[in-house]
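Revision sheet: structure tokens.
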Amino acid sequence: MTSNGLLQIGLYLIVLAVLIKPLGHYMALVYEGRSNWFTALLAPLERLLYRIFGVRSEDEMSWKTYTFAVLAFNAVGAVFLYLLQRLQHLLPLNPQGFAAVSADSSFNTAISFITNTNWQGYGGESTMSYLTQMAGLGVQNFLSAATGMAVLVALIRGFIRHNATTIGNFWVDTTRSILYILLPLSVIFTIVLVSQGVVQNLKPYQTTPLMQGTTAVEQPSGKTTPVNEQSIPGGPAASQIAIKQLGTNGGGFFNVNSAYPYENPTPLANFLELLAILLIPAALCYTFGKMIGDTRQGWALLITMFIIFVPLLLLCYYSEMVDIPAIKTLAASIDYGGNMEGKEVRFGVANSTLWAAATTAASNGSVNAMHDSFSPLGGMVPLFLLQLGEIIFGGVGSGLYGMIILALVTVFVAGLMVGRTPEYLGKKIEAFEMKMVSLSILIPSVVILLGIGVAVVVKAGVAGIANPGAHGFSEILYAFTSCANNNGSAFAGLSVNTPFYNLILGFAMLIGRFSVIVPVLAIAGSLAGKKLVPAGSGTLPTHTPLFIVFLIGIIIIVAALTHLPSLSLGPIAEHLQAIK
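Predicted:
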């Protein structure tokens, strides 16, 4: 590892840490309904929206009503996005004349974007019209992110309230998430990205002659055709890129995502897009502490995230610099700068591994390098971050409520050790809460393992593998882990735009998202109805270094027990084969 690379990583972590408290404080003001930076400008618009849609902001919901609102809202979004793709050839703002997207691909993409996964089995610039990109994918980037944030706020109210039957109003929480947080940040970020050269227009694609012609080979005939020009795509990209990063969506406007110069043109754009990936998930930890009246609790969860994230990031960086024996042998005769296969020369190994770790720690999934080209251990790091359940920062809202779920497991295990009912933030954690916790942990894991099992034995699953052996297994493992945990990144060697993978991965995304949201809201409703319990001599303090150590242990143990066998068949086996 180089000092320059470590300096870049260190600068990134410092800037991120500095921004956490001010943004976290601002978001707490928004969700508490207090005056904030944009109240004078946006409060009249907020009231107008409630009037238009018939929402009474003072009416609150039980957890069951809140859950129904979440499910109905996302179901409508999925149907709309599906139909938009199927009918895009009949609609305006389609200057390239793209055809309707196939039924299975439309289903997969609709589920992908409502679940904040943004998995892409298609090339955006060669498949989607401008209208589909803006009114479909771009809008869902806001709505899916706001859904996760609303669910988190509902869970926080479960801890704050006592002897209550309601946990807030989903429509109010979603509106405030978009209007006061996601939209202002996205507008500012879009302007910055445009200043760096990210494309933002509605013009048809431009054609330019090539300085040196190439040859295209038609399949399956093998006929060759000379190619003397290139089509350069444009479109309203900057606005979608801003929200895809801030909302931990990750779906690229262009096929190669943030490795594409029109999407990520400069080192500054790369740094800011990286910063946007973790900004809101990290700041929500402070928001959590502020809203419950004890910021130490939020800092404890945030420190846990950093303690797990930083060593894994450094392992990924180290592995990409020195891990591959064949490259180390070659390095003796060249100026060796690490494993550059699949990476942009503009960014190098340090920024590529930083992005890979950040995008898989968050539920983002965007890439500026191809994870499929990483070394076995380097590729295992983003895969393992996915297997932790997208709780190390995770998606906006969803990452933190996932971490709180693991905190409940931690206090439950600690309670068993001392023989008393576990407590967290003044609420007793009893049988109902632990049943919901168990469901939210076990169901996504079952989906991953069952999906892998089916894919490696049926012909349609094996047909998509581009690489034989352990690496091919890693490609399938990564795909199901990414989808069930709503990340969306991929090992690109697996061909997934087929009816089999579009359908099975679509259901994996759907179950992975809502099998966690429903139990979380059930926990919120249960906790809100309980009375506050004063801390006693046997209560485990949940803001101390001891609790952080316990929590880290629980996180690693849960992930290791579930996924170590599959890791052994994939990246670990591939690494051992390379060094024998």
